[in-house]
DNA sequence: CACAGGTGGAACGTTTGTGTTCCAATGAGA
DNA sequence: TCTCATTGGAACACAAACGTTCCACCTGTG
């Protein structure tokens, strides 16, 4: 089952490299339950594996975002909830993309990342037009903060600081409304 | 000037390792403008350098947090603004601590990190008692989200997505009040 | 049974980074 | 000027990871 082996290697590599970006091919092979030779059979060099994994991870992230229909004509909260829910299981892949920065010198990968983030930026822009998002905020900042919140949530789950079922509500709630009470917010805006 | 050289190596190492955690000692030495031999003179092994850098970074972060007086009896927004302002220049060090995770297996370092995060958690708890922060949010989540926002801001500055002078207001504003308009928030809470 | 595809393991050469030693050069201070 | 401390550079041995090759072993299929 060549295809299954390739998938197992990619999945394991995402998990291992996401936690320790300097892991050796032997580490990955062992974690995947295959021989180092088999890894080399599917990915000639380490660089090939990294690139393939980056492309695969981006593919999955993009698919998750698309499947969450960020362009749907619905309240922003519903969209954010769906995207966050779809992205949380991809914590390993996102971690690899974020930490294993060795890969980002390839132009096609950067290009691909823009394909992923553009729909999210479009959603923010649309929400600003409909008055759901403060119009004075840079679009990129809103997207960055959302991604950062998802990262923080997945780390919190991994470390046991927050419960998995609380993650999405926390992300959605604090991203949209902040951590302040309405009282605190009102008091601050009056001052 | 032995002391100055040591500082230069630590500063450069934080910058280099923060961006590429697998950088070689030769890379660091070159970036610091010193010979590789000199690096080995101050830090016998690579591990020693990593530990010294981790301790030094934690020291700086802790000092920045302490200097921002997180226990002051003031509105939360003022405290958050001071802490964020103090933490932003330490982006390299924080990045190293976050990415160069090779170090976190040392118990004294983990202990040290708790020393840093505890005052922040205390601040959140106090703000929950005074009604400034929603009492239903896990304290750890509020702190994690704040740190994540500072990270996102420093990345945004490095990539030119947001202006340096906008960073602190963005962090403070969106962390406390979220990205929604008051209208959107009210509409959502009515539903 | 014979066979082919995928696999694991052993072995080997090569590269890269590390840690060490030795020596010459530089520079500040007595 | 002499001296001592610090440094840079060269050279070396050592370890780890990489990439390659070859061979034996399964396992399903004809």
Write the layout of secondary structure elements.
Two copies of one chain form a homodimer.
Chain A lengths: L1 H18 L5 H8 L3 H7 L3 H22 L8 H12 L3 H9 L7 H23 L9 H20 L5 H14 L4 H9 L1
Helix pairs in contact in A: 1-2, 1-4, 1-6, 4-6, 4-7, 5-9, 7-8, 8-9
Chain A binds a DNA duplex (30 and 30 nucleotides) through helix 3.
Q: What does this protein look like?
A:
- Two copies of one chain form a homodimer.
- The first copy, chain A, is mainly alpha-helical.
- Helices cover 74% and strands 0% of the residues of chain A.
- The first copy, chain A, starts with a helix and ends with a helix.
- The model of chain A has no long low-confidence stretch (mean pLDDT 92).
- Chains A and B meet through helix 8, helix 9 and helix 10 of A and helix 8, helix 9 and helix 10 of B.
- Chain A binds a DNA duplex (30 and 30 nucleotides) through residues 1-2, 5, 24-26, 34-38, 40-41, 44-46.
Q: Which key terms come to mind for this protein?
A:
mainly alpha; DNA-binding; homodimer; 191 residues; elongated
- The stretches of 5 or more residues of chain A where confidence is low (pLDDT under 50) are none
Query: Largest inter-chain interface?
Result: A-B, 46 and 45 residues
**Topology order of chain A in helix (H) and strand (E) letters:** HHHHHHHHHH
Q: Ends of chain A: how far apart?
A: 66 Å
* Overall radius of gyration of chain A: 19 Å
Taking the sheet with the most strands of chain A, its summary is: none
Helix proportion of residues of chain A, in percent? over 70%
Arithmetic mean pLDDT of chain A: 92
Quickly give the structural class of chain A.
mainly alpha
What is the molecular shape of chain A?
A: elongated
DSSP strand count of chain A: 0
- Work out the helix count of chain A: 10
Oligomeric state of this protein: homodimer
Which percent range describes the beta-strand content of chain A? under 5%
